[in-house]
Amino acid sequence: MDRTTEERERVIVRFAGDSGDGMQLAGGQFTAATAAVGNDLVTLPDFPAEIRAPAGTPAGVSSFQIHFANRDIATPGDTPNLLVAMNPAALRANVSQLEPGAGIVVNEDAFTKRNLLKAGYEASPLDDDSLDRFQVWRVPMTTMCQRAAEAIEGAATRDVQKSRNLFALGLICWMYDRPIDGTERWISDKFAASEAVRDINLAALRAGWNFGETTEVIGTRVHVAPATDVRPGTYRNINGTQATSLGLIAASVRSGLPLCLAAYPITPASDLLHDLARRRDVGVRTVQAEDEIAAAGIALGASYGGALGVTATSGPGMDLKAETIGLAVMLELPLVIIDVQRAGPSTGMPTKTEQSDLLMALHGRHGESPLPVVAASTPGNCFDAAYEAVQIAVQYRTPVILLTDLFLANSSEPWRVPSAADLPVIDPGFAPPGDPDSAFLPYARDEHGARPWALPGNPGTQHQIGGLEKADVVGSISYDPVNHARMTALRAAKVAGVAVPDVVVDTDPGAEVLVLGWGSSAGAVRAGVRRVRQRGLPVAHAHLHHLNPLPSNLGEVLRSHRSVLVPEMNSGQLARVLRAEYLVDVHSHSKVEGRPLFAAELEDAILKEIEG
Amino acid sequence: MTTTLTKADFQSSQETRWCPGCGDYSILAAVQSFMPELGIPPERIVFVTGIGCAGRFSYYMNTYGVHAIHGRAPAIATGLAAARDDLSVWIVSGDGDALSIGGNHLIHALRRNVPIKILLFNNRIYGLTKGQASPTSELGKITRSTPRGNQDPPVDVVSLAIGAGATFVARTVDRDKQHLPAMLRAAAEHRGTALVEILQNCPVFNDGAFDHVADKQQAAEHRIPLQHGKPVVFGAEGERCVVRAPDGRLALGETATADPASIVVHDARGEDPSVAFALSRLGDIGAGPVPLGIFRSVDAAPWGDGLVAASREAHQGVGTAELDALFRAGDTWNVA
Fold first, then answer.
1. Which of A147, A237, A567, B151 is the most exposed place for a label (fewest CB within 10 A)?
2. B204 assigned to some structural domain
3. What is the pLDDT of residues A207-240, one digit of tens each?
């Protein structure tokens, strides 16, 4: 058989197996190898909510998807070109999402009668015509791993079994022409304590690669050239959680405020707690609170003491924090609240993504309690969004809600590493010691409408704050109706006055339709817009990073297009805000499936909008 | 230059607004009088309060003050303690605030041993919301929310605190001008969480609830004074006592007839909290006799001992070079 190499612009690979099969690990190593060859990429891990769903069943399938290309890409991809299925359940759970002609690599050894039954197959799909639309490669991975490990002294059967994921990784690396030396180094480090385990895994990885190279089972290798439209700089692969935590740390360093994160474990926000808990070396203090309410209270107490108080949670945790966020609005102290959104309501779907906390972030407190809301758009952008949330909170002495989501938290992309010195310095502007001849005025305001941040310990500025309404400027308790109206207006004006950059419209000549996204749909919207443009149709595209206040040019932007399409992973929350705010009849493209938006569906939606 | 602090240094200019005759006035006066003893300037003292009549306390102290939200004062004070180790942090809370809505936070502050002092005003009633039963109200009590009598057994503050692992627990009375400051002093000296239950009168909704212990005439009969290293005896002539019964429990006894060896000698500093807990179960807080004093005072490392300084130091050691290194951790690649 002739070996050919096919050039492709982009490829989507999904690794799928039982949770415990090491699919996230294989995917992570494949991502590192892909980054090393200079492709642009976006990844999406997906795992079950159950700690250990029944092994071998579709409910227990864990997967890792990577989209890589020779150009700038925006999403982890809609439909995989290649599926690696480690067992029948993995095949069953994923096959419907493949496009016709996609490749499927199966671990043939796992297609036993018992496993087929557990996956709900009456007969093996490998033996009937149900997979005819696809190109299926049957690889006896378990047997190959056993053979590869035969010569290794002290090789335990269990360890050999577990090395299947590295066999699969080696094979897929060969198929897509990725180097395996990075993974070899990783294995050598990771299993340095046990020579046998190290050698088993190295043997499995190389066996996978060599299987591709020598057996000619797979006739075509695919080559994706390095991306060329990438800004020069130093890059690393980063997911949204890591980027958020680095953004917070950077803001903590550039503000001189030690970071204190208080959180209560909740999926998918817990990873932020895990990540920052390891950062005591840079002065980060984390507190695992007794509940979500305490987490918010501890963060607020830390801010009161002059630290950078941050609390992070997901949907249901936000409900519990609402009371404390309201107090922070009243106290006018900096506080950053990170909501890693997930599908709701209530417990909803804890491992599935959604953008449905927007209205809660904007309005989910009693009374008139406005606060700034910032939303991150890509995994790497979580860094900038977190940094900016801190800047706003500190400068305006206000709680700020940062919206990310499960998709951003887990998916990763190359991140152009910033230079620390280029990050703006954040001045906490603590109140100086008080003047003994005049009373301290805790509710006086600066040019931003912010009140003084007088820390306990600062002489001469003793004052008492609290949830009760305060008299303007002097800060004593006040039930005066006129004063309450004035304070309400002052708090609102402060938030409305937060400096937000104008929204930038990326447009084509003659574009009549504007596609306006926010948050993590950025990539999918961009990809959908690109597809429409590839058809030669003009379209305008803009993305909102600031949900409160909205950019001051937004009304004009909305009104200058014949129609505005707003795609969201909720039932139209931003659309509702825009209609209310600007009296523009925006059209909502809504999806509430716990899954990211897809480029293809947006392409369709935009085309319909263009047709009118 | 050393200036001597006085009570006036701790009085704020805000108008004090409690009902005439409220026990809070005498506690406020006692705290303001006691504060100069600490030798800590007002700016390094913080009062954090919850909701309820006691919640107003922070406004009346010329220190830093946060009047927070219902039951959450321990959480906010914990955050303050996580950020600062140079402050004297006090919580003022009521029985409703601390034990119902804030019960969880109280338990965790105590078990963590956060360096804060908690003054828990117990008047066994909801005052601010006008007279509903509280978690310390007695069974069968008729209130606006329990017209047929309270069905919920009361919680004992001291038992709860000891059960939660508190390292310092004391009980005192709002009107006692000697005992109350003594308990404040002992609490202030304690390194971790110190909880002082202050039996307090609500003249409007639960008047006289603690007259049996507050009233000087009845005090001898109704108080069981706890003093470390001393036998636990009470009554005008010390005629009653606490004894260890043959089955190991503590019980009230007559000094004259009790085996002297069985009379309990109070040990507030013992590691084992079981005897302090047993003492907290003795008597009847509503009718007497009531154990008063320091139940437990154990030296233990406060929460995050040294962490504030360590994190501040680590933080100060991070400049742009370290930040750049952090950004570049792991595999990086260059695009020209």
1. B151
2. yes
3. 999 999 888 778 788 999 988 888 899 999 999 9
